[in-house]
Amino acid sequence: MKYLVTGAAGFIGMHTSKRLLDMGYEVVGLDNLNDYYDPALKEYRLEQLLPYPNFRFVKQDLADRKSIAELFKKERFQRVIHLAAQAGVRYSLEAPFDYVDSNLVGMMTILEGCRHNEVEHLVYASSSSVYGMNAKIPFSETDMVDNPVSLYAATKKANELMAHSYSHLYKISTTGLRFFTVYGPAGRPDMAPWLFTEAIIQGRPIKVFNHGKMQRDFTYIDDIVEGIIRIQNVIPEQTAPYSLYNIGNNQPVELKSFIEAIEKACDKEAEKIYMGMQPGDVPATYADTSRLEQSANYKPTTSIEVGLKSFADWYRQYNSI
């Protein structure tokens, strides 16, 4: 089995690629190594993959239609796990066209590659952000998601619609995964676990938005990868072979409790600056994972205390602290 994993130098992409490689599969990892955050972290992640003889890295931009088409034609992938995207809710306020190029054009080149090269199953990253300001919780895959509150969320909803149209028109099996606030070792430096851990260790104050009353369904990276690995073997076969799954911890944690868990992991109390809500943020995320449990016999289980301890230990090691 040969896989294409896009965003292979990204957080989820690296961990997913490593799991597939450990299982003995051939993986072609694609990434453009952009500088949205420090490329040194992406190079570090790549270093975890390059020693594997069954891994090859391709530095390429998804928006390059010709190059992506040639890659698909040459490699003849059986399955594609599409995790590359311009990430970040807040950054979409500053650089909207980055999201169009990466998340919309990039999804299109992947769909066209799958269409013309008989890919067995396309699994792609969506996001819990598609639920927007939905008041009903927990969020279910059957809920209406027509009110995104950020451009990032709008592009992820568009990805789901694009996938459905290709599943309907060309009978391509596609599965979208709505990830809920993923964290863990080698995670992104623009997300709360990294930002808070770094500030606490360095003795700097942390900004606590919505006065600590935000709730997030924090999901540990190993749980996310386990969900991806299981779901890529659950291939939709209906008339339009299309599926969507939430992957979340099914246990939302208030920001205040989250900070307390980081303080415990760092063995140090944080200095806090309480602030209002940021544009594009939502007050709560909470995953209904019953569809994932039914189809893949799986439910994430890692507690926030265990996950943040693991991240804090990795952070100290990575930064030689």
Automatic annotation (TrEMBL):
Q: Name one Pfam family in it.
A: Epimerase
**Which InterPro entries does the entry link to?**
Epimerase_deHydtase (IPR001509), NAD(P)-bd_dom_sf (IPR036291)
Q: Which organism is it from?
A: Oceanisphaera marina
Q: Which residue numbers delimit the NAD-dependent epimerase/dehydratase domain?
A: 4-248
Note whether Cytoplasm occurs among the keywords: no
Q: Mind listing the UniProt keywords for this protein, alphabetically?
A: NAD
Q: What is this protein called?
A: NAD-dependent epimerase
Instruction: Specify the domain of life of the species encoding this protein.
Output: Bacteria
